[in-house]
């Protein structure tokens, strides 16, 4: 396989950039390391800079470069998620939001009563933020540390999340943000704990707000706080590809504190359901 950046033939599977579509070796697979023009340029040591561009050979594709803002070429930010990742995020978001809305409808309203527009205005954005916030915090911190991070769904996770929508006990892990790169144990552990930490923080704020709103809205907010607490609790289980395993191997004290926080929030929100 010939790397599009260094033009060297190296063993191993080629890495295809989801932003520019070219193939790279393991050393240059990150957008920052091959000066991907679709992301905004390099940010790591050893990357190609615009000064290395040779005007005598402007068509040389192995040396991607970024022109000035006066050029007709404009950088296009690829967004938070790549094209492939967007499909996985969309499917997982639909399953999670559907699970949350159905549970909230049965608990707060009644399966025999049609929910009001206010119900959907509150629940759909809240459940979407709860799920996307969890995954984006993983992704953001991973990128800050120069690691590759993309979300992928898991068939069994999707099925369990969908089935649990009709039960009181929830399994809210339709997929995971896969991390690749040379990250230290502290970095990997920190990336793993920010997702559940986000849900605990958001769930706590929503729970507090529920105590200061009138009955109908307050009941909806308590259900959403409970949902966030379950999402944090499930992901903190130290098993398989869940966040809890990485956090537990990194720092058991911080894992125990985060787990205790999620359990307390589950109990409190359940008490006021």
Question: In words, what does this structure look like?
Answer:
This protein has 273 residues and is mostly helical. The chain folds into two domains: 79 residues, no CATH class; 189 residues, no CATH class. Helices cover 51% and strands 6% of the residues. The protein is built from seven helices and four strands; from the N terminus they run ββααβαβαααα. The chain has a two-stranded antiparallel sheet. A two-stranded antiparallel sheet has the order 3-4. A hairpin with a 6-residue loop joins strand 1 and strand 2. Helix 2 runs parallel beside helix 5. The protein is elongated. The termini are far apart. 38% of the residues are buried.
Strand order in space, largest sheet:
1-2
Distance between the termini: 58 Å
Shape call: elongated
Beta-strand fraction estimate? 5-15%
Q: Structural class, from helix and strand content?
A: mainly alpha
- Give the tally of β-strands: 4
Task: Count every helix, treating DSSP H or I runs of 4 or more residues as helices.
Answer: 7
Radius of gyration from the alpha-carbon trace, in angstroms: 22 Å
Give the helices and strands as they follow along the chain: EEHHEHEHHHH
Oligomer: single chain
Uncertain spans: 40-55, 58-78
Concise account of the structure shown:
The chain is mainly alpha-helical. It has helices at 83-108, 117-144, 155-163, 185-210, 215-235, 243-250, 252-271, and strands spanning 15-16, 23-24, 148-153, 175-180.
Topology overview:
Layout: E1 15-16, E2 23-24, H1 83-108, H2 117-144, E3 148-153, H3 155-163, E4 175-180, H4 185-210, H5 215-235, H6 243-250, H7 252-271
Antiparallel strand pairs: 1-2, 3-4
């Amino acid at each position: 396989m010939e790397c599009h950046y260094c033009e060297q033939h190296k063993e191993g599977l080629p890495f295809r950039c989801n932003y520019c579509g070219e193939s790279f070796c393991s050393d240059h697979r990150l957008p920052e390391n091959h000066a991907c023009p679709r992301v905004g340029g390099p940010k790591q040591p050893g990357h190609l800079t615009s000064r290395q561009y040779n005007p005598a050979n402007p068509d040389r594709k192995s040396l991607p470069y970024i022109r000035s803002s006066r050029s007709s070429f404009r950088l296009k930010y690829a967004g938070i998620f790549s094209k492939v990742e967007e499909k996985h995020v969309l499917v997982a978001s639909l399953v999670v939001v559907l699970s949350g809305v159905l549970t909230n409808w049965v608990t707060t309203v009644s399966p025999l009563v049609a929910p009001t527009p206010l119900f959907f205005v509150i629940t759909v954005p809240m459940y979407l933020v709860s799920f996307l916030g969890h995954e984006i915090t993983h992704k953001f911190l991973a990128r800050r540390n120069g690691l590759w991070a993309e979300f992928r769904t898991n068939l069994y996770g999707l099925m369990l999340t969908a089935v649990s929508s009709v039960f009181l006990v929830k399994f809210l892990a339709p997929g995971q943000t896969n991390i690749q790169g040379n990250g230290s144990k502290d970095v990997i552990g920190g990336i793993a704990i920010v997702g559940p930490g986000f849900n605990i923080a958001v769930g706590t704020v929503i729970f507090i707000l529920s105590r200061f709103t009138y009955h109908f809205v307050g009941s909806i907010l308590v259900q959403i706080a409970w949902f966030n607490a379950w999402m944090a609790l499930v992901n903190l289980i130290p098993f398989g590809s869940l966040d809890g395993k990485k956090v537990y191997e990194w720092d058991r004290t911080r894992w125990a504190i985060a787990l205790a926080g999620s359990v307390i929030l589950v109990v409190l929100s359940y008490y006021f359901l």
